[in-house]
Design brief:
8-stranded mixed β-sheet; 13 helices; Alkaline Phosphatase, subunit A
């Protein structure tokens, strides 16, 4: 009996050892993460979403190895507010970055016609840009090259943010997070490339039912398809570089649009044409269950991007982030709804809020006295917009193409997206939908209350509040101490995070723990916080 027990014990020890040796080798691995971001695009223009108008060989090749998300959304249908959601992992109505636009690094007056000077909202305590969490864990973070976060971000967010930014400047073996933005398919590309070569025949492309259908409309649609070919070629260059460097298989590669398409009734609109984006993710080779494409119909939105990247890097999201991770180590529960907002567009004040489930969309318009097609000066340059206006002025619109040109909005809108995917038939007054409409209303109200919707305040009132807060809240210089050759920095205030650099260097690093091996190096420290002036500098010697 004793011999049998001894034998069982030895076998158990061997089994445990084998289990230990066979532990998932990827569990603590730091994967590279690449974002490929197309300006102003809806999924309806892409082959992987069923449109065969143009071949996009690079993107199609990546998609064949990817999880393709069929219900991915921006939380705001215009770039700068949408990007503030991405960089912070917080809703714009919670951070007061909801208006388009609040900040432009090149302009003092951002909207001269209404006397609006550029500003950066003061962010809530403990708020910081998500790349700082990655940099604290050793990631090399680059942005090439558009920022446009509707605020002035603080030092230490990126290792490099420029048209030359690339992972190739990192230390050997260092994991990286690299963002690449493609402007050719931006709204402005419709008129910038309007006289250039077309890569599709305008006569053979589909015209969505909400557009008029004539040669001018078809030409602008053809320009957009051609611009997608232009960015596909540029993305091909980046993919080839990743493969040359032996990095393609070890990387997560995200492709997505920064909100809906570049056209009228797409951009700046809370319909799916303005919010829904193409979105797919290629996983690293050792995490793929198979080599084929998979489809995912979970409802996700940009509020989930920052938590997801942190989760991939093995970092649990901070409390202030309002989304959830859908990949990585800290996957959150599936969403029942996504939420969206729109407010001032350039010089025109408006306000709408929306909630979308998989089947339904509810929209609340706070200014029903305004038209749907508000006259945004920037958009009025587009040939399609000019033509749509012309047709409306002579009474030549009818049916679906006349809906968006109505002089007043409906106070509330409700759509059954399964039977009406283009949101053309408002069923807000249908009695048999009352219970589901009320459920969406209540969920929207709860979200607005949870976020303390800053859109309820006049913009100039907010600016005045931040000016007062900025006067009262002076960031203090970090206190520096050295113990056992470890350099320690302490934040002496409630706001801010500490960054440091080698004296005479230009790149600020994120301070997250005592610094070892640098006791003989002259270092400069300061405290930074979005919306507040940087603190005075401190030095270790």
């Amino acid at each position: 009996m004793k011999q049998l027990l001894l034998f069982i014990f030895i076998i158990s020890c061997i089994s445990c050892a084998n289990i230990s040796q066979n532990k998932n080798p990827t569990e603590n691995k730091k994967y590279n993460i690449i974002w490929l971001v197309a300006e102003d695009q809806s999924p309806q223009f892409f082959p992987m979403y069923g449109d065969s108008s143009i071949s996009l060989p690079t993107l199609e090749s990546i998609a064949k190895e990817s999880i393709v998300y069929d219900k991915a959304f921006a939380n705001v249908p215009v770039c700068a507010p949408a990007r503030s959601t991405i960089i912070l992992g917080m809703y714009t109505i919670a951070t007061a970055t909801h208006n388009m636009r609040t900040y432009n690094s090149h302009l003092h007056e951002i909207e001269p016609s209404i006397g609006l000077v550029g500003y950066t909202p003061v962010m809530p305590k403990h708020t910081k840009e998500f790349p700082k969490y990655l940099r604290s864990e050793g990631y090399y973070c680059t942005n090439n090259s558009k920022e446009d976060y509707n605020m002035q971000i603080s030092d230490g967010t990126w290792d490099e943010s420029s048209s030359k930014a690339t992972w190739r400047n990192r230390k050997e073996g260092q994991p990286f997070f690299s963002v690449f933005n493609f402007m050719e398919c931006h709204e402005s590309g419709i008129w910038r490339f309007g006289k250039d070569s077309l890569f599709v025949d305008p006569k053979g492309i589909p015209v969505p039912p909400y557009f008029p259908d004539n040669d001018i409309i078809r030409h602008d649609l053809a320009v957009n398809y051609s611009n997608l070919k232009r960015i596909d070629d540029k993305i091909g260059t980046i993919i080839n570089q990743l493969k040359e460097d032996g990095l393609y298989d070890d990387s997560y590669i995200f492709f997505y649009g920064d909100h809906g398409g570049p056209f009228p009734r797409h951009k700046r609109v809370l319909y799916d044409t303005g919010l829904e984006v193409p979105f797919f993710v290629k996983l690293p080779k050792d995490l793929m269950q198979d080599k084929g494409q998979t489809r995912n119909d979970d409802i996700i939105s940009f509020i989930d991007l920052a938590p997801t990247v942190l989760s991939i890097a093995g970092i649990e999201k901070p409390d202030q982030m309002q989304g959830k991770a859908f990949l990585g180590s800290y996957i959150g529960p599936k969403d029942e709804y996504i939420y969206a907002s729109s407010d001032r567009f350039d010089a025109i004040y408006d306000k709408s809020r929306a909630i979308r489930s998989k089947k339904y969309k509810y929209i609340r318009n706070y200014h029903p006295e305004l038209p749907y097609a508000i006259p945004v000066e920037y958009r009025e340059q587009m040939p399609m917009m000019k033509e749509w206006r012309r047709l409306d002025s002579i009474g030549a619109l009818s049916g679906s193409s006349a809906l968006w040109m109505r002089k007043n909005k409906d106070p509330e809108e409700f759509y059954d997206l399964e039977v009406d995917p283009f949101e053309l038939n408002n069923i807000i007054n249908e009695a048999n939908k009352k219970s589901v409409i009320d459920a969406h209303r209540s969920a929207l109200d709860a979200w607005l209350e949870k976020c303390d919707d800053q859109g309820k305040f006049d913009e100039r009132e907010l600016i005045s509040k931040w000016a007062t807060l900025k006067e009262k809240t002076i960031l203090k210089a970090p206190t520096i101490s050295v113990e056992s050759e470890l350099i320690m920095a302490k934040n002496e205030g409630e706001y801010g995070n500490i960054v440091y650099k080698i004296e005479n260097d230009s790149i600020w690093q994120v301070y997250s723990k005592p610094l070892a091996g640098m006791s003989d190096t002259k270092l400069v420290f300061k405290t930074v916080h979005i919306g507040l002036d940087d603190s005075p500098e401190s030095r270790n010697k």
